[in-house]
Amino acid sequence: MKSRRVKVEDIKPEETQLPVLGPAPRADPYGSWKPVEIRKPEPMDLQLPDQEYIQIKIPAASEPKVKFKEKTLAGLGNDEGEVETGFKRRRFNCNPKRSIRQRLDQDD
Fold it and tell me: What are the Basic and acidic residues biased-composition ranges (predicted)?
């Protein structure tokens, strides 16, 4: 057999592994953050026939002016007779059908 000589170039130098320092990187299940790209949707060509647009003039409606009338009172009505103003007294037992709880024991 022929012996083959190994050249120095054929031998790869061993790469030295550097020790890992710090905490291990955690797995990101959703991937890394990416900026949001705002896309404008392209208008679709539906191949519809062109329509003629006719500009319609709308006349401006003028609102009629409102006329206010002034009302006057002849009097306040105090001359005809004095009416007593005040509160009405509350009437107890005005409806006997109402169920009101009454005390059975009376301690004097």
Answer: 1-15
- Which amino acid is it at 52? E
CA triple 93-99-104, angle to 5 deg: 90
Which regions of the chain are under pLDDT 50? none
For 97, the token pair is: 């059908």
Q: Can you give the three-state secondary structure of 22-89, one letter per residue? A: CCCCCCCCCCCCCCCCCCCCCCCCCCCCCCCCCCCCCCCCCCCCCCCCCCCCCCCCCCCCCCCCCCCC
Query: Would you state the pLDDT for residue 38?
Result: 92
Question: Within 10 Å of residue 81's Cβ, how many Cβ atoms?
Answer: 6
How far, in Å, CA of 58 to CA of 61, rounded? 9
